[in-house]
């Protein structure tokens, strides 16, 4: 599906003419969505990425209803839906006991479910659409420095070349070179635990619902078990210290200690695994002159609730509108972008943090926590509000 990577060729020295309207650093879901949205409006957008190929680790696997809605104008939603698995329920459990059942089917949207799909596939679909719209990704290229003036920004790249743009967007992740070059503070802290990610095939008799995302609580920490296409499941878990590449025995031990108890889930095959540390941080500003931030460059948080990639894509669609207005003369639209999206990031980070801290509550508080959650979950309004927030529809 994806075209071969475009060989990076950049001007040898800064030039007055603009090479592009918008330079986007980072070819993940956020950067690709932004580039495609700009290209669809007839604006010149160039994406650079430090990787030689689009082979980012497949961390994200959840696309929520609101994200599918905002991607409709880009004509990629049907492609994503066709390749993903629709999970209609999200439940929080303590081993076999259901504490909070959340049903997405009553939601007023064409997509009353969580779409489970590997980030690698999502990126491939977005890249295909960008190529159809005439956009390009230059690889491998990394940003070395930025220099702003009254008219635009000159980006110095690691091949010694330069790109001249009217605006630059950092969609280059938590360790954003753009954010650092712009001097934007990234306030927050790291969780003490590390996180394990693994895609597995479970034994056929595993007592795990096929179309349900489950967040298991346990004294040892949380574990998420989520279905993927092709009969796979995504496992996400917190651990004090994980090996760089968790093996099948390690993942099995996590499921055995935290997952279903009456009929334990058995790992039949380990397809892929990784580890990472999670921070909860938000950029103090989303704009510094002609430099803007989106996605993980602007906010990072726990994967609980599956909000990360979705928030980045929503950033991208909002920023595309703001940049189009700015390029037409309404520069104040760029401040509006930050004013709109930063409070949303604060809510997303807070939700993910609450879920993570609830899941890892001390053993002494476990009974109290479970009783409180079960009581609240009996109220339809509570379940409905959680469904709206997890699906992203609350941000319409």
Word description of this protein:
With 396 residues, this protein is of the alpha/beta class. It folds into two domains: 196 residues, FAD/NAD(P)-binding domain (3-Layer(bba) Sandwich); 147 residues, D-Amino Acid Oxidase, Chain A, domain 2, CATH 3.30.9.30. The protein is 32% helix and 29% strand. The protein contains ten helices and 20 strands. The strands form three sheets. Strands 1, 2, 3, 9, 10, 11, 12, 18 and 19 form a nine-stranded mixed β-sheet that branches. It has an eight-stranded mixed β-sheet with strand order 7-6-14-15-16-13-17-20. A three-stranded antiparallel β-sheet has the order 4-8-5. Strand 14 and strand 15 form a beta hairpin. Helix 1 packs parallel to helix 4, helix 1 runs parallel beside helix 7 and helix 7 runs antiparallel to helix 8. It is globular and about 65 Å long. It starts with 5 loop residues before the first strand and ends in a 5-residue tail after the last helix. The relative contact order is 0.18. The N terminus is likely disordered.
**What's the β-strand tally?**
20
List SSEs in N-to-C order. EEHEEHHEEEEHEEEEHEEEEHEEEEHHHH
Report how far apart the termini are.
Answer: 32 Å
For the record, the CATH class of the largest domain is Alpha Beta
Low-confidence stretches: 1-5, 11-15
Mean pLDDT: 90
Instruction: Enter the CATH topology name of the largest domain.
Output: FAD/NAD(P)-binding domain
General shape: globular
- Give the domain tally: 2
């Amino acid at each position: 599906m994806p075209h071969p990577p475009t060989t990076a060729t950049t001007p040898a020295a800064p030039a007055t003419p603009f090479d592009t309207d918008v330079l986007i650093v980072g070819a993940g879901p956020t950067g690709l969505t932004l580039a495609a949205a700009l290209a669809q409006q007839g604006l010149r957008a160039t994406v650079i990425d430090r990787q030689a190929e689009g082979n980012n680790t497949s961390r994200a696997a959840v696309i929520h209803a609101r994200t599918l809605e905002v991607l409709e104008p880009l004509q990629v939603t049907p492609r994503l839906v066709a390749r993903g698995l629709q999970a209609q329920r999200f439940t929080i459990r303590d081993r076999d006991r259901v504490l909070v059942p959340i049903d997405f089917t009553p939601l007023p949207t064409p997509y009353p479910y969580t779409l489970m799909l590997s980030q690698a596939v999502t990126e491939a679909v977005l890249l295909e659409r960008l190529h159809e719209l005439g956009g390009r990704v230059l690889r491998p290229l990394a940003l070395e420095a930025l220099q702003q003036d009254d008219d635009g920004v000159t980006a110095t790249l690691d091949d010694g070349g330069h790109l001249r743009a009217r605006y630059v967007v950092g969609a280059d992740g938590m360790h954003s070179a753009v954010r650092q070059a712009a001097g934007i503070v990234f306030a927050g802290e790291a969780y003490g635990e590390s996180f394990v990610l693994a895609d597995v095939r479970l034994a056929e008799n595993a007592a795990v619902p096929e179309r349900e995302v489950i967040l298991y609580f346990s004294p040892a920490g949380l574990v998420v078990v989520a279905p993927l296409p092709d009969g796979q499941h995504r496992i996400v878990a917190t651990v004090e210290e994980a090996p760089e590449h968790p093996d099948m025995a390690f993942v099995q031990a996590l499921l055995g200690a935290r997952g279903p108890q009456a009929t334990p889930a058995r790992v039949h095959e380990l397809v892929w695994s990784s580890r990472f540390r999670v921070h909860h941080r938000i950029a103090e500003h989303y704009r510094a002159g002609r430099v803007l931030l989106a996605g993980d460059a602007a906010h990072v948080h726990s994967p609980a609730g599956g909000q990360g990639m979705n928030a980045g894509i929503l950033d991208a669609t909002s920023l595309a509108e703001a940049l189009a207005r700015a390029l037409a003369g309404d520069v104040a639209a760029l401040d509006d972008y930050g004013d709109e999206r930063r409070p949303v990031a604060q809510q997303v980070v807070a939700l993910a943090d609450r879920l993570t801290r609830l899941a890892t509550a001390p053993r002494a508080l476990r009974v109290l926590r479970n009783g409180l959650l079960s009581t609240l979950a009996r109220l339809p309004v509570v379940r409905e509000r959680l469904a709206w927030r997890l699906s992203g529809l609350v941000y319409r």
